[in-house]
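Shape is hard to put into words, and the shape of a protein is harder than most. The fold becomes a row of whole numbers, each drawn from a learned catalogue of backbone shapes. The outcome of that step, for a single protein, is printed below.
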Amino acid sequence: MKLRLILHGKAAREPRVRAAVHAVREDGHEVSVRVTWEAGDAGRFATEAVAEARNGRIDAIVAGGGDGTVNEVFALALAANPPEPCSFGILPLGTANDFARSNGLPVDDLAACLRLVTTTVPKPIDIGTLNGRVFVNLVSGGFGSRVTVETDPELKRRLGGLAYVVTGVTRFRELSASRGRIRAEGFDWEGSFVALAVGNGRQAGGGIVLCPEARLDDGLLDLMIVPELVGDARLDALSQLFRQGAAAISSLQVTTRSSWFEFESDEELSVNLDGEPVRSRTFRIECRPAALRVHLGPTPLFGTA
């Protein structure tokens, strides 16, 4: 099998990466590597890889990096219209690796992750778009999203989910609720909210499960809204959300499932799209069913799992 690994530049000298590539080559497979140097490289390499796949020189394209790298590689490859035999894999090298973790990849064993590409049958997965921009995993917005973005990475490394609670407490008076109207199939909601998520996958922000029932193969995206709460109730709800996930505050949520969502507001909403910040007053989110064939581990994110 012929693999093209598109590797984030920060991981180029990582001994574990070199060992994983060596192990798969020892198995008898070809692994060619492209290392990113500056912004846009991952997408450019993905486009080039699709062209080579069309000519039969590559069987699978592997994104080596964090959630942002996975999103960029998958998005640009999808835009280049990969041939049906071409499949995709993930070598998880980020801090959070939310998409990889929730899809059963053994993130602590890079050789095993790379071998999944050569030993498993790829599964067709849905892809989401926000105003045409692809996201593989999840879009989040509101107070909760801003807290996850503004939490210090070192604090997150030391405290895990508790770091978000600490940041939320310190920024509590600065960050106000957002307001907007959200429409979908058979759904129309308007009001103020402290957290919003639209998930193709289930978790973001380093393991926070925001859309616990989301699946990658149902042609639908999952919406989760935490409406505005007052005073200590807001802080308590967000603390539970950050530490235990959305299931801990299920009675407070507004949820639905749809193939599309439309959002509009008088004020710009800051959203996080697979790690990339976006600000907009209006946006449309759509699901593209079975858009890419990806090698994954044992995962509950499929209806047949």
